[in-house]
Write a structure and sequence with these properties.
This protein is an alpha+beta fold and 206 residues long. Among the domains are: 42-102, Type Iii Antifreeze Protein Isoform Hplc 12 (Alpha-Beta Complex), CATH 3.90.1210; 113-160 and 170-203, no CATH class. It is 28% helix and 27% strand. The chain is built from five helices and nine strands; from the N terminus they run ααβββββαββαβαβ. The chain has helices at residues 2-14, 16-36, 123-128, 166-171, 184-195; strands spanning 42-47, 62-67, 87-88, 103-104, 113-119, 134-141, 144-156, 177-183, 200-203. The longest helix is centred in the N-terminal third of the chain and has 21 residues, at 16-36. 22% of the residues are buried. InterPro entries: SAF. It comes from Tessaracoccus flavescens.
Length: 206
Amino acid sequence: MRRLLTSIASFVSWHRRAVGAILAAGAVLLLATALRTPTPTTAVVVTASDLPAGHTLTSADLTVGQLPPGTVPADAVLSPSDFEGRTTAVPLSAGTILQPGLLGGDHSTAEGSAVVPILVADEGLRAMLRPGDTVSLVAPGPEGLIVVASGARVVALPEAQQAGSQVALASGRQSELILVEVPEAEAGEVASLGQAGEMSVVLGSL
């Protein structure tokens, strides 16, 4: 065995340049093979720029990125068209992987509830609201303020109403709407008072 090892050491010593070249060629071959092997990825929808809460998504706001399958959230959005027209529930930074929990604006409601647009003229108050917030809606009554709806849920804060919408035409105001989810039994009164600007918002449930 000692003689064999001595012979190998002697061979390497005398032919070290050739051995080095062979090892380098092998390394290059392995690297080239690795580069030729495509890494599997999954397409996900990400935001193309910074977006504020309440922003209505358009195709210009979305782009498709490629991520390794193991890093993609289970509920990640895979097609931009699935969520165009939805609104952001929170501010999103550019490159954020789009997930349903980050969005509002689908206007889906629980059974027995309805979504109603109401006017909120106070810009400071609007800035404090976020989709998902619980609010109460009050209005003047014969003997003081009355609670029209308690525990209403803010669904969305549209950036602006489309020109020609019924509410915009009726109110003359384009960007003071919020959408709230209330029980169906209260939806008519909330709509009547809320769209006439005769109702106030209280944060929380009364």
